[in-house]
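*** Backbone structure tokens ***
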Amino acid sequence: MMASIKLTVRRLYALQDERMVSTRATASIYVGDQLIATEEVSGLTESAVSKYIHHSLPAGQPVRVEWQTTGIADMTVSEVELCPCCRHDSSEG
């Protein structure tokens, strides 16, 4: 049974001459204390963009994201029961 996590990039940009420009960030996604994924994120966003990550650890554990960037970033993660991209239902099993 696979569980799914929704990674939401709320904001990602760098400032150059007082303008917002594209930048890169490396997001590390954890379930409990275990690193389950490292995602490279790049671009320029002022509106939320989401990506789904699947893992085989037990559902219901705390999830968190940490990131490194030379710009400005804001990201969140949350556990989801039904992944909209593949319609995988992690509540079955």
Remarks:
- Residues 89-93 have pLDDT under 50 and may be disordered.
- Strands lie at 3-16, 19-21, 23-31, 34-43, 49-55, 63-69, 72-80.
- The CA atoms of residues 1 and 92 lie 8 Å apart.
